[in-house]
Amino acid sequence: MEETKIKRPEIVGDDSLVLYCNQYSYYCQKVLWALAEKDIKFTKYEVDVANDEHFSEWFLELNPRGELPVLQKGLMIVPGSGRILDFLEEKFPASKSLRLPLTADKKLASLKTTLDKLPIGVLTVGSFLHPNSVVSPKSPFVQPVRYTILERDESVSSRLRSYAESYPAFSNVLLKKAEFHERKREVLASSQYYASLLAGIDDFLTEVETLLAKASTTEWIAGDSCTLVDIGLGCLLYRLYVLGLEDRFWTGGKKPALEKYFRRILPSDNFQSTLPTKTTLLKTIWLNTPSTYKAGIAAFSFSSMIIGSTLLKR
After folding, report:
1. Which of 129, 159, 120 shows the shortest CA–CA distance to 147?
2. Which pLDDT belongs to residue 12?
C-alpha cells in the first residue's frame, strides 16, 4: 500500500474542547446529541474515514485503536462514546444532567446497559451483506454507497496490517484489530447469524415498547427530560431507520408506542443538529459511488436519491 501522510489538524485553543468524529457514526451521533442537550461549546473535527484518516499516525496517537469518537481537552484525551458521555456528566456539572433520575424504573438502567453493548457496526455491515433483510434504505446507505462500504470493509484487515508495518509503535493494537475484522467478516457471512441478531434486537425493542407504553404521558422514556437512555435509543432507532429496517421492527402497528416516540424525537432541534445536511449527504453519495454507477446517476437528479428521507434534515 502506498502511504499518504496525513497531517495532524491545527486546532485553535490549547484548552478548547475538541471532538474528533465522523457524522455517519452511530457512536459519534450519541456524543453530538449529548453536547447539544447540555449546550456545551466545542470544536468539531470531521475525521475522513473514507481515506483512513482514523488510521493515520496523528490520530493513532490520540487513540491507538483508531476508533471514533475521541474528545480532547488540553492534554486530556477521552476515547469512546461511553467514556466521553461519563466525562461530560462529571466535568460539566452546571450543564443539564442526562443521568437517569433516581426514581426511574430499574428496567431503564438495564435497558441502557443493553444499548451500550449492541454491535452497531455488525448490524450495519450485515444489512449490506444480507439485503433481503431490509426494505427501503435511506441516504447515505443507498446501493452504490453500500457497495463501496462493503468493498472497503473487505479490505480493512490488509490495510490495518500495512499500517501496523508503517507505525511500529501501534502495531500490536492494529494487528489485533485486523484479526478481529477477519473473524467478524466470517461471522457476518452467515445469514443465520444475522437473522438471530435481528431477532434479538426485536426482542429488545419489544421490551422498550412496554416501557414506552407505560410512559405514554411523558415526552421521554424516563420522564419530561432527555436522558442518556433516550440518546442511545434514539440513535439506535435512527440507525435502523436509515438502514431500512423500520418496517421490520415498528411500523404498520407492530410497535405503536415506539413509532410515536421515534416520530417525536426525529424533528427535535438537538437531534437534528447531529445530522448531516442534504448537501453533505449528496456529496458523500457521489464521492462513494463507483464510476460504473455514476453514469446512471447522472441521468436523473440527485434529489431522487433522497426521496423518502425528507425527515433526515429539516
Report:
1. 129
2. 53
What confidence tens digit (pLDDT) does each residue in 203-230 have?
Answer: 999 999 999 998 888 889 998 899 999 9
Grid cell listed for 213: 407504553
Is 147 exposed, middle or buried (CB count within 10 Å of its CB: 0-12, 13-18, 19+)? middle
Q: What is the pLDDT of residue 13?
A: 57
Cell of 115: 444499548
The whole-angstrom distance between residue 123's C-alpha and the CA centroid of its chain comes to: 11
What is the reported pLDDT for 106? 87
What whole-number distance in Å separates Cα of residue 71 and Cα of residue 68?
9
What beta strand segments (E) does the chain contain?
17-21, 43-46, 70-73, 76-79
Question: Interior CA angle at 145 toward 140 and 148, to 5°?
Answer: 145
Q: How far apart, in whole angstroms, are the C-alpha atoms of residue 77 and residue 288? A: 31
